[in-house]
Amino acid sequence: MGKYKVPILLLCVFFNLHHNARTYSPLEREIEAKLKLLNKPAVKSIRSQDGDIIDCVNIYEQPAFDHPALKNHSIQRVPNFLLESQISRTGDGFNVSSDVYQTWQKSGSCPEETVPIRRIRKEDLLRAVSLARFGQKPPEVFVNSINPTNLNFSNLNANDGVVDLKNRSDALLVAYAFQFIGAQANINVWNPKVEKPEDFTTAQIWLKAANGPDNFESIEAGWTVNPKLYGDHNTRFFVYWTKDTYKSTGCFDLTCKGFVQTNKDIALGATLGPVSVPSHQQYEINVGIFRDNSGNWWLKVKNNIPVGYWPKELVSNLQSSASLVQWGGQVFSYEVKKTPHTGTQMGSGEEAYNKFGVACYMGGVRIKDNSQALKYPSFVSTHAIEPYCYSAFNDAPYGKDPVFYFGGAGRRPPHCP
Ligand SMILES: *[C@@H]1O[C@H](CO)[C@@H](O)[C@H](O)[C@H]1NC(C)=O
Ligand SMILES: *[C@@H]1O[C@H](CO)[C@@H](O)[C@H](O)[C@H]1NC(C)=O
Ligand SMILES: *[C@@H]1O[C@H](CO)[C@@H](O)[C@H](O)[C@H]1NC(C)=O
Ligand SMILES: *[C@@H]1O[C@H](CO)[C@@H](O)[C@H](O)[C@H]1NC(C)=O
């Protein structure tokens, strides 16, 4: 037996050298290096039914700690403030369930001291516009950039909701005129159609602050259908951050260094289910983003479950407060604001005025300001940049908790040709 050991080992070495020499182009080497940087060593890996692989990574080895600004950051394991538990389901709980889970959770769980991270594969990188922009939203560029009369980044206000963006279409509820230190909503879960491979659609919350004269910072969470990023048409739970209007910083989920995850049961970018059924059972997920006393912004779901946080080191003005909160949907497509319009849907794919059971909604909309109370915002406005394609309607009957409806089908002639 012993005499075979050496030849086999040599054969392996020879094969590897040969293999490397033959197949590794510069691009492939770059891809391998990027994968190695993004995918941290797993203590355990879970193969999910939806095709994802979830790696349970030691909490101290997650991507965030590669960030130069987080060199001296000591991880915060729990938020240093009391979590609120006030908000319940939307619509008096009538045919509404908050029993939303993540598909991978059916196939296993991560051990203590680890966090679940969706593994990034070579094919995911190959779908990206470029390796450098993998995991990033395209930059926001304003249609009226020569004379942005309705835009002042030093003083973000309601007008930011009506700003016309290139290749993006929004339907939003906007809260302004305050310094916000938190926001939340129950987001109705759907699986809208995404028509073009580079399109994506979101239902989400944004908290924004100015960062210099021509940039804003934003931290975001919600659900998205984004085939370019995730490789399928599933509805996925996501987070995002940027400190320069999506130009170069930030990304979705843990596809770059930044967000610090603390929860071992919830994976960012993972498939959500079940989704709502028209005129029948509605599913919603409570999502909240709250600043703690040290300036970190915590993400929590299902009222009281902390997922992790955006460390204060990532942002500048957002460290103290957000000056704008937006709830609603956004479609990114090269075929918005033109004819023929993209058929990518927003929300449930139905228009806002169809209301409960048909249109997508945000219920239990709340903000927190320096009074520390969780409350419905004093000033809100609604904005839809292409109302015949994607509409916005805030249903606020006297004495009832308002529900914000939004969405649409995209192309639907004659209204949205
Ligand atoms: C980390 O701490 C060292 C020593 O106190 C300091 O020199 C360095 O600037 C710090 N780095 C960051 C990114 O804060
Ligand atoms: C933008 O807002 C800041 C602060 O409120 C103000 O000083 C500045 O003059 C404004 N700029 C424009 C172009 O309105
Ligand atoms: C509530 O759900 C049940 C079962 O899915 C359905 O039969 C009923 O029509 C729904 N009611 C409303 C008002 O949506
Ligand atoms: C918007 O889409 C067009 C193609 O229709 C593209 O040329 C342009 O670069 C895009 N702009 C931005 C800011 O993404």
Describe this entry's structure for a reader.
The chain has 417 residues and is mainly beta. The protein has one domain (39-407). Helix content is 11%, strand content 31%. The strands form 4 sheets. Strands 3, 7, 12, 14, 15, 16, 18, 19, 21 and 22 form a 10-stranded mixed beta sheet that branches. Strands 11-10-9-8-17-6-20 form a 7-stranded antiparallel beta sheet. Strands 1-2-5 form a 3-stranded antiparallel beta sheet, with no helix packed on it. Residues 1-18 and 145-149 have low confidence and may be disordered. Bound molecules: 2-acetamido-2-deoxy-beta-D-glucopyranose (4 copies).
How would you summarize this macromolecular structure in one to three sentences?
The chain contains four helices and 22 strands. With about 425 residues, the protein is mainly β. Mean pLDDT is about 90; it is low at about 1-20 and about 145-150.
Number of helices: 4
Largest sheet: 10 strands, mixed
Helix content: 10-25%
- Overall SS class: mainly beta
Residue windows where pLDDT falls under 50 for at least 5 positions: 1-18, 145-149
Along the chain, the helix and strand elements come as HHEEEEEHEEEEHEEEEEEEEEEEEE
Computed over alpha carbons, the radius of gyration is 22 Å
* Envelope shape: globular
Q: How many structural domains?
A: 1
Number of strands: 22
List ligands, each type once: 2-acetamido-2-deoxy-beta-D-glucopyranose
Q: In angstroms, what separates the terminal alpha carbons?
A: 75 Å
Mean pLDDT: 89
Q: What oligomeric assembly is this protein in?
A: single chain
**Percent of residues in beta strands?**
25-35%
